[in-house]
Structures are given as C-alpha cells and as structure tokens.
Description:
The structure holds two protein chains of two kinds. By secondary structure, chain A is mainly alpha-helical. Chain A has one domain. Chain A has eleven helices and two strands. Chain A has a two-stranded antiparallel ribbon. The longest helix of chain A is centred in the C-terminal third of the chain and has 36 residues. The radius of gyration of chain A is 22 Å and the shape is globular. Chain B is an alpha/beta fold. Helices cover 34% and strands 28% of the residues of chain B. In chain B, the strands form three sheets. Chain B has a six-stranded mixed β-sheet, with helices on both faces. In chain B, strand 11 and strand 12 form a beta hairpin. The two termini of chain B are 36 Å apart. Classes of the chains: A mainly alpha, B alpha/beta. Chains A and B meet through helix 1, helix 5 and helix 11 of A and helix 3, strand 5 and helix 4 of B.
Amino acid sequence: MSSVEPPLIASPGFMGSLRKYLRIFRVSLVERLAYRADFLLGTVLRFLPLVTSVLLWSAVYRGSGNDTIEGYTCRQVIAYLLLVHVSRMFSSMPGLASGIARDIREGTVKRYLVQPLDLQAHLLAYRAAHKFAYIVTSALPYGLLFWLMGGYFDWPREPWIWAAWLASLILGFFLGFLMEFVLGLLGFWFLEISSFLYLVNTVSFFLSGHLMPLDLFGGRMAMVLKELPFQYLAYFPATVILGRETPGAVMNGLLVEIAWCLVFLVVGRVALRLGLRRFSAFGG
Amino acid sequence: MSQGSQKGGAGPAIEVSHLCRTYKVAQKKAGLLASLRGLWKGETRTVEAVRDVSFRIDPGEMVAFLGPNGAGKTTTLKMLAGLVYPTSGTARVLGYLPWEREDSFRRQFSLVMGQKNQLWWDLPAADSFELHREIYSLERARFDSTLGELVELFGVDKLTRQPVRELSLGERMKMELIASLLHEPKVLLLDEPTIGLDVVAQGTIQRCLREYNLRKRATIILTSHYMRDVEALCSRVLMIVHGALQYDGQLSGLLDRFGRSKLVRLHFEETVPHGLERFGECKVNGPVAELKLEKSQIAQVLSSVVDLPGLVDLSVQDPPLEDVVAMAFGSGAGKP
Lengths: 284, 336
C-alpha cells in the first residue's frame, strides 16, 4: 500500500469551485457554437410572429376607437411586445426542465452522485453559456429589428433606467433558471412530466406578460398577476425600459425579484436533496 | 462516525458485510380495468435484489462478478458506488461509507456503467477530458502526463479531437474508460465494460485494464458476461445468483467445483466404430467422436477405448467455461 502514490485530493475551495463551473461555461460555449446554423435560423424565425402581433394590435386599437387601453397607446403595446422578446431572451430556459426529468428517468443523473459535481451549479454554468452565445449572436438581428421599428420607441435618457433594465434582465435569467430547475426536479417523483410542463409553459405565457402587458388584464386580475413571480420573466423588465415605473417602484421590484430568486433557490436545493435521496432509495 | 478507522489506510480496499437490498416493485395486472385500479392504489411486491452478501477485496485485486441477468451484480456495484442505499448491512470502500458520497471518496473511485455517461456527444473527447480536469480539480502537469499515458495505452491518439458521436462503439468505450481513469482512481467499478464490442476491441480494453491495474495497483471489480474477459483479467470471481453469493474464489476453483465432466475427443482413421454410446453422451462428427464423461469415469473409459481399432489420436479437455458457468448459475438457482 505504501508504494501507492498519494491521491490527488486538492481541496478546491470556493475559488476552485468557481473555476470549475467557469470551465464548464467555456466548454458549453464551444459546444453551442457547433450549432451555428441552427442558431441563426432560430433567431430569424422568432421575428415572424411579431409581424402578426403588430397587425393584430393595430386592428384592436382601430376597432376599439380609443387611443389608449389601460394607459397604453397602440405604439406602446407594440414597443412592449418587442421588448418582451428581450426579456424572454434572458429568462426563457427551453428544454431545461424536460432535460432534467429525462436525465432522472434515464438514470444519467447518477453522474452527479458519482462525481464531485453539483447538478444545479453545472446546469447553471451550462445555461449561462448558452444564453451568452445566444444573446451575442442575436444582438445583430435584434439591433436591426429595433432600428427598423424605431418609430415605436421613446428610449429613456436616464442612465439609471438602463442600469435597472440590465439588472432586471440578468435577474430574470436567474429567476427563470431557478423556477424551471424546480419544475424539472418533479421528475424525481413523477415518471412523466411533459404534459405538466406544457401546461405550465402555456399558463406562464399569460402570467408572465408575454402575450400582452399585464395591465391589460384589468383591475384585480392585473393586481394579482403583479404579485406572482412570473411577471419578472417578461413584463417587469419591459415596463422598466418603457419608463412606466417610478424609481421607487423599480427598486422595489428588483428587491422582490431577488427575494423570489432566493425562495426558488432554497426550494430547489431542498428538492434536489430529497430527490437524490429518493433516487438512491429506489435503486439509482 | 463515517471517518472509518482505516480511511485510505492499509486495510482492505473494499469490505462488505451482510449487505442486503430489497426493492418494492409495482405489480400491475394486465387489462384496462386493472390499470385504472392501479391509478388509485398500486400494488407492490418486494424483491430481494441482494441478500446477505459479504466479502473483502484487497488493494490491487481484480475481481469479476459473475451471475445471470438480474442476479444482483449491478445493484451491488451501485451500492459500492454510493448510488443506492443498502436496506441493511454495510460496505466500506477505501474506508468510506460510499452512500455518504464524500467528495474525498468520489475523487478516488470511478464507476463506468454503459456509455454516454461522461462524454459530451457533440464535442471531441479532449474537451470532455478538460472538463474532467476541472471537475476533479486535477493539477495541470499531472493531468497532462496521465492523459498522455492513457491515450498511448489505449491507442487513440488521433481520435481525441474528433466529435464523440462520430466514433465507433469500441472507440467510444475506450474514451469513456480514459475519462474514468483521468483522476487515477484507486477503485474502479466496471459494469459490462466490453458489452457489444468486437474481439479486437475487447482485447485492447482487457490489456489496458490489466496494465492500469499493474501500474497503479488499482482495485478493479467488473461484471461481464464474456468469460474471455474474466479469464484474461480476474483470478478471483464472486458468483452471485438470486442475490446471494454462491461462490468466492479462484476461477479455476469454479471449474473444479462445477465442471464435473470432461470432454474426451477420439480421432479415428476412417469412421467412428459403433457402440461408443455405452460410455456416455456421444457426439460424432466425421472421424471424430466427443464423449462427455464424469471425472470419475475417465480412467476406466480411457483404458477401454485405447484398444479400439483405427484410433489415431485421443485428448481429454475441460468443457468450455461458458458451459461450466451456466451450470453453476443453474445449480445456484436451485437453492433459493
């Protein structure tokens, strides 16, 4: 035994761990770039529904005979719908929950039990890389789009609004990730969650304000929706940059968003621990 | 408490005592009505996957788990890897309780179970290896030299820059094994490492595992259905049938214990004479007859056949290992 070399146990510590996940970020980025063509096409296709939205809302306003609905002019609604795309660019997590559920069902999740690697931190690094690649490559087409449709926008001059917008977008990424992560963990308890995920996605389309500004739901409904975490995935960042919120309201919104992130972080950690325990109890 | 008295010390690499594992499996009767009832209240049945298994393995040993499908080999491996909790009994691997999954334990072992485990499908294996370096926090210089050695050992020099999805099954398995060896594990648990591979690839993997075992004094447990693997690699076998340990010892001992018969080949000048059936089971193929005999009969039968007219050659052989193992599995099945 004495002839055996000492094991390579270097305790990595916090910086070491951070480096580990940054490395994962880098490799994920390389992987993502392997799919360049898919990328570009995906971005362009995303614009198509916008055209219908513009036509639809113009018709709605013409039909109603009013210049504003719940405080929004037609121009503002269209600007909002464009900006919601930017929000979703950060907060949407396609395939995250279903991927986790699939890993659980197929047993590949065992990798995180056998290796010194954390499932959540690994996926976060992976997602961050994908988002980064996505946002960088779609900056050009989006820039072009916003320039073409410049007539719909009154961009704010205050730097704090731009800073708050950026903060709300980045927080939206984290909240979107943490919420979707919790959903995926349901796979530990249910064999098949795809129809459930479909339902949640559909409902979230309304609740997040992806379909239209939450204010347009009117009165009490709008009030309730603004208490839910979904609004931070689409609605909130868009209203910030539209300049519809007072500095106090924006600050408050960001703090509540951070609180939601913490809530879902804790729920996710607890669920992950319980889920892995259940996984081991059921036979890996 | 989990800090075993001999963690990383000079004790056995693996020590298992009275390990048991039961599963509850859903029972569903056929038919729509039964399915609907199952939605309401599922019936379960208890299966004893592993029953009171005890053994110890010293550092540097290479041991094979033998047993028919569903015998409990994989469940035992999973418990040793910390993937599954035992129902009762205990196991220590390198002094650790595996299911506590301490990082310092996880840095010292590897589990290879099937493919597509650790490699990124669309990236070259080299990228996955880099990632491994980070996951296990390996020093650059040592990682580079280990990787260099392994790539040379497995003979995959030109393949590490090619996307994994374009590799053949055998090449992928080699990459998978390299990935699992990069952190120089002291204990290696392999579930069917050569399944589906051709003889050449099987041979390479056998050679590499033996080499790794020698170089690092690593302890290796493998399950395999290929007796060729077992013969080439492991002097010791543990046979598990119906969750219970049926045999623990040398491979040759298994032959002595279960290989009660011998094969006597008689080669005649022209045709095989009639009447050989009286000695035992007889297969005739042209001028060659094969007699399957109990060991105790051999001497007596040989003395009577040597004088048969036209006999040109005679040999006594052990039956194929596969047959012996199949017989051993069958005998284990008799004892529940």
